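INTERNAL AUDIT FORM
Audit reference: QA-55
Scope: verify that the stored structure record matches its stored sequence.
Auditor: D.O.
Record contents follow.
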Amino acid sequence: MVLGLGKSQTEKNREWSDKSDNYYDMGQFEKAIEGYSKAISFDSKDYVSFDSKGLALTQLERYEESIKQFDEALGIDSTSHVVWYHKGRSFYFLKKYKISIECFNEAIKREPKHSDSWYWKAMSFYELEENEEFMRCSKKLQDFDSDIDPNYEDKIQKIMGEIKSKSSQAKESEKVKPLNVLKMRLAKGEISLDEFNELKDILEYQ
């Protein structure tokens, strides 16, 4: 049966969009992509189908192609925080973390309590090893604890524990550096200032 026979452009667009959603839900992403393209052919302003097509491409790890679809959607409606979020994730998977953060910021600007955007923004900072920003985003994410995905929360807590452990180890390592040991002994009165300076000169010479 030919879809949309004798129907208006709007009806054909809706029919192909719904059919493509079903393909997507069944994991038939290639068919979904073809269907969304067909839906768009009947309504070039259908930003939802552009977005959905981008998501299907993401599922196939065709991230650069997906970004083009998200850009098409944003060209029609730049106010959608969901599309900005989807675009940010594609950049994240391409390991372009600074750009992904920019996209998540755009999503958050439009929907400040969008926990998914806060989570992936945090993960982008983590990949950049910007731990302070990661912790800040994580704290913000925990403010939305009623909405947060349990899987997100578990991963955030695990990473926060790792960061705190490394920080503690770094501090302990700093304490045992020879010069720091001398400073501690001087502060406790175990050595005189002259002795400190003499030993300090020896350390620096080494």
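Auditor finding: record pair retrieved intact. The chain has a mean pLDDT of 84.
Action required: none
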